[in-house]
Predict the 3D structure of the following.
Amino acid sequence: MIELNDVHKSFGHNEVLKGITASVQKGEVVCIIGPSGSGKSTILRCINALESYDRGDISVEGLKVDRDAPSIVKVRTQVSMVFQRFNLFPHRTVLENVVEGPLFVKKEPRAEVLDRGRTLLAQVGLAEKADAHPPQLSGGQQQRVAIARALAMQPKAILFDEPTSALDPELVGDVLGVMRKLADDGMTMVVVTHEMGFARDVADRVLFIDGGVIVEQGPAKALLNQPQHPRTQDFLRRVL
Ligand code: ADP
Ligand code: MG
């Protein structure tokens, strides 16, 4: 579903992606781990066309991710993103936040979208918060709203960029629980995370990236339990 082939990306003289080649199959959960500044967010942002890339190819369901091509609108609606900071509109209700994309970007019928929004809020355990405003919610609840908002676009895949890193520890579990359920339901997910327990239990594959290259990748349990590369071993020693 998602293919990256020798992707290079620089910011000025700083080459942050130095030839990334990876693929994500339909229904697969792939976790990306690695030190701060290694290029993890940049990979997600390139897949979602929030950033351009300089060299190589990225495609989603065979459609090239090219910020200048007309097809980019389609790619953007097919791949949702959930950020570390939830980026909800504080002055709109929770339900309004969830239905924003389908209503105004995809221009879907209002009644249908509102229905879907309520169903999704129930799915993330927040049915009773539909009319609340984001600042009234805990960080964990806001992140679950952000996940419902991502799902409201009926995407083919969701990219998560450290979705629990900004949360108080006691709120992390609920968000990971929602993500785990999504994975069980067959959603295609790419998750940048420092939650090694989640990666081990939920991911099909893990990519370890350092300095803009994939140093090691493999089945989640194999990579996390028996990392082969010294840099992976060193990283895991420090985070586990
Ligand atoms: P990670 O998510 O792994 O922490 P990032 O992908 O955010 O890493 O960043 C990789 C490198 O790219 C870092 O050195 C960062 O400073 C740099 N970088 C990221 N975004 C920008 C930007 N918009 N402009 C300039 N440099 C950037
Ligand atoms: Mg990042």
Q: What stands out?
A: Residues 98 and 201 are 28 Å apart (CA to CA).
